[in-house]
């Protein structure tokens, strides 16, 4: 049977789902004071497409004290409770065993070798934060589920059911929209570090783990073939290869969208994995992203049935998007009849309707582009 059917193929009245009890969940947005406009537009968008019916709280996180104007404007945009929290300095800085001077030297090197964001110290802190310490923040302690938002992202179709409730009902732990190949130069030793952890803890090579390995079989469809083709693999040497010779296919879920169970990430297994990775200094001496860290972890520690592709959620983060096709039984939301069925484009982003379609059918659905 299908381990991962879409939660919804119907256009339903969101007020039906909203009449059911809420999950213990929050939308979470990390942002800078300077991103106020984009943060507000994203909140207005998720409110229009989802939260106006469900009124989940939104937790705003910043490594710096919040600008009162940001608080005022965003408070006014959220239909549920808005919580503004500052991240403790220890969660947004070097761990004691990483020498900042040596780290900055590595970052300068990354900047000259075109590692994406490799030269930006704050970006490294952000990736380390989202990889591990995010989950242990007191501000998130009351919640079991989170939905990650970023300034600038857009939801392009109405979400007419409660994805937290659907995750809980179906026994899901981690949900994503878009899967991509990681930039190889950002994390040459990440896969080996995770595989070392796997062996040290005697964790088996499950089918879910093996799904992240390259295969060289001739009948593998193009979209499952290794991204670093043999030539690049030779150039990279030991990069992305375990001690046993397994090679990561670089697939990962794009973490700017995530709906997931905080208890998994704050649990002992994941936190032990994070500590193991953090010990290596790879968040600074390389530029490990939180996305591949999460993806490798969920494939190592969870069975495939606990992962969920939200193929029914229309989502855009520059430069990629996922757009679900028209669902059977489509219709319009009450009060939005004129807008239903419109093709999504930047111009029509105010449109609310269950019928969403992509102008470019090749980008219709990201399933299979990577994993
Ligand atoms: P990209 O999507 O990988 O290009 O990275 P972004 O620039 O979108 O950053 C990812 C998330 O971290 C977004 O929610 C940003 O607002 C947030 N972010 C990145 N750097 C900082 C920072 O220095 N301070 C704060 N407060 N947020 C940051
Ligand atoms: Mn982003």
Strand order, sheet with most strands: 3-2-1-4-9-6-10
Got a strand count? Answer: 12
Protein structure class: alpha/beta
The CATH architecture: Alpha-Beta Complex
Low-confidence stretches: 217-224, 326-352, 359-369
Quickly describe the structure.
The protein is α/β, with parallel strands linked by helices and 371 residues long. The chain has 13 helices and 12 strands.
What would you say this structure looks like, in words?
The chain has 371 residues and is of the alpha/beta class. It has a single domain (14-363), classed as Alpha-Beta Complex (Spore Coat Polysaccharide Biosynthesis Protein SpsA, Chain A). The chain is built from 13 helices and twelve strands. The chain has helices at 14-18, 36-54, 68-77, 100-112, 121-131, 163-169, 190-200, 207-210, 230-236, 262-266, 268-279, 282-285, 290-301; strands at residues 25-30, 58-62, 82-86, 145-149, 154-155, 174-176, 179-181, 251-253, 258-261, 307-309, 315-317, 320-322. Strands 3-2-1-4-9-6-10 form a seven-stranded mixed sheet. Strand 2, helix 3 and strand 3 (82-86) form a beta-alpha-beta unit. The model is unreliable at 217-224, 326-352 and 359-369 (pLDDT under 50). One of its GO terms (molecular function) is transmembrane transporter activity. It comes from Staphylotrichum longicolle. One of its GO terms (cellular component) is Golgi apparatus.
């Amino acid at each position: 049977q299908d381990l991962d059917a879409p939660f919804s193929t119907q256009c339903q009245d969101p007020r039906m789902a909203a009449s059911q009890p809420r999950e213990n969940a929050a939308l979470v947005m990390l942002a800078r004071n300077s991103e106020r406009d984009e943060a507000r537009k994203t909140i207005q968008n998720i409110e229009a497409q989802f939260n106006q019916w469900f009124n989940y709280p939104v937790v705003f996180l910043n490594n710096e004290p919040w600008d009162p104007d940001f608080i005022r404007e965003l408070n006014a945009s959220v239909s549920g409770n808005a919580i503004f929290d500052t991240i403790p300095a220890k969660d947004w800085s070097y761990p004691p065993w990483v020498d900042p001077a040596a780290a900055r030297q590595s970052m300068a090197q990354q900047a000259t070798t075109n590692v994406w964001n490799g030269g930006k110290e704050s970006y490294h802190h952000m990736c380390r934060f989202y990889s591990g310490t995010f989950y242990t923040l007191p501000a998130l302690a009351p919640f079991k589920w989170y939905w990650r938002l970023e300034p600038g992202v857009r939801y392009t179709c109405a979400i007419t059911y409660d994805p937290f409730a659907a995750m809980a009902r179906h026994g899901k732990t981690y949900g994503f929209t878009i899967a991509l190949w990681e930039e190889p130069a950002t994390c040459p030793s990440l896969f080996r570090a995770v595989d070392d952890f796997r062996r040290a803890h005697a964790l088996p090579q499950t089918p879910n783990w093996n799904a992240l390995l390259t295969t060289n079989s001739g009948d593998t469809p193009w979209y499952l073939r290794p991204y670093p083709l043999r030539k690049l693999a030779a150039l990279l040497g030991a990069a992305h290869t375990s001690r046993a010779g397994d090679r990561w296919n670089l697939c990962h879920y794009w973490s700017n969208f995530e709906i997931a169970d905080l208890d998994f990430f704050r649990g002992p297994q994941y936190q032990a994995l994070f500590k193991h990775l953090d010990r290596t200094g790879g968040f600074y001496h390389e530029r490990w992203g939180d996305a591949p860290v999460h993806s490798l972890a969920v494939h190592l520690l969870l069975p495939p049935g606990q992962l969920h592709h939200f193929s029914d959620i229309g989502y855009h983060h520059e430069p990629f998007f996922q757009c679900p096709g028209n669902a059977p039984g489509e219709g319009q939301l009450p009060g939005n009849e004129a807008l239903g069925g419109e093709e999504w484009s930047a111009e029509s982003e105010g449109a609310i309707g269950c019928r969403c379609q992509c102008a470019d059918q090749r980008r219709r659905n990201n399933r299979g582009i990577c994993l």
